[in-house]
Amino acid sequence: MKKIALFNLLTVFLVFTASISKGQNYSFGDFVGTWHGTISSTSSGGYNDPMTMTIESNGFYTETSGHLMPSLYPDTQECEYEASSNRMHWWYLGTVWGGQYFYDHFYYEVVYFQNDTLEMHYNYWDDPEPYPEVGTIFLVKESLTPPPTLLQTEVTNNNVSLTWNEPVLGNGGMANPTSYKVYYKMGDGAFDLLETTVSNNYTHENVTAAGSHSYYVTAVYNEGESDPSNQAEVILTTPAPTDLQSQLLANNVVLNWDEPDNSEPMAGLMGFNIYHKYGDDPYDLLMFVEDNYYAHQEIPAGVHHYYVTAVYDGAESDPSNEVMVDVVISGFQDELERKTALYPNPVSDLLNVSSEFRIKSLLIFNSTGEVAYRQIVDAYSYRMNLTDLATGLYVVKIETDEGIISKRVLVK
What we know:
The chain is mainly β. It contains 2 helices and 29 strands. An 8-stranded antiparallel sheet has the order 3-2-1-8-7-6-5-4, with no helix packed on it. Strands 11, 12, 14, 15 and 16 form a 5-stranded antiparallel sheet that branches.
């Protein structure tokens, strides 16, 4: 008795399962479009041929394998979907004899149809089960709105150039979208629409913020917007300054350094932070400068330490190397300072220097520590013509019989 009940239960389950397969809720419109795949058979010698099938909304179809196309009477092939049996019905005019028209009919049951992927198995006129060994059709529907492909980026002077391949249909033809939409996000943010363009390229200008910049592109058609292309990422780096050097001129320290390596795409470089500490004190920010040099003037005697960082849009680099300067100022330096004059200051052309001590020579250094002027004097006063010097801050090194003193002067 238990065996009979179990058999009946299994029978109900199989009937129920079959009813699920047969009772799919499709319509003929679901099959309209262009499909690519294969038609195969493992019986009667077997074959596995590529197939591209186009089903029109009026029921007319074409396919490239030849297995479901007429050989004698072209343009007679039609198809329909039978919802009651979950089968596609294909037919075409096979022969004409004595005024009679004879059609060839083929039935394929739909066994899988999801995510634009379709699998059908051959089925006879009224057989309850299909025969995949006789014929199997496996197709993927061609999108009418294919996405752009191979999105690439190139960074030049903080401008990100985007290029991508135009979308292609499954048969190799161009899809011809009406426009493209470029989407962008920075870091872990959300993608937002950046621009709409009709070309397959776009330049995102003035991208300066340090970090990750990501993009994707979609194609816009009359039928709607495509899926996204691949994502492309640009990372703007924040390299540090290098080769920080110092030069001591009396009690003035002239610093200069190499700008960061720009072999990789850099974030927008805004300038440099100079950090300083005196003795055992902690480092403090001394100055922000836009150029790669700085003159720290009239500093007290003792040990001074410096390092430099690069300041970018939204970020600061690691430190450069550190330099140490030991400043020693004798008491006689104060007397030289009092008894030596430099005027006018600022100066535009002629600069006068005078001292109670005989002046032996004059040297003028620019802000990078390079010699911009040199003169042997051997007098108590001298007038220098500075009209050839560029505008900026300079250090005048005055060598006297009694010692050397440095004074700063601004050339305007």
